Amino acid sequence: MAPDPRSRVISIRLTADEYTCFRELCLSQGSRTLSEMARAAMQTMLHQSLAPQPEESVEGRLAQIESRLRLLSLEVKRLSKG
Predict the structure, then answer these.
(1) CA–CA distance from 5 to each of 9, 33, 42 (Å)?
(2) N or C: which end of the chain has fewer CB within 10 A?
(3) How confident is residue 51, by pLDDT bands cut at 50, 70 and 90?
């Protein structure tokens, strides 16, 4: 069975700095396109919000810390360019 074709579009506006940071993140993560990275991020967030939340596991806490570190890194880059 073939997967459903992508037929829906979401449009967002970014500042020049946000766009630059996002593009750099995509390159550092090996994403081919900005859309691929955005889609992967949304899928991760959806999976985390829909998954049953057992008591906090070490893996879960580590994933949260890694996610926050990535966001912090993006913010540091943004601020250092300002």
Answers:
(1) 12, 18, 17
(2) N
(3) low
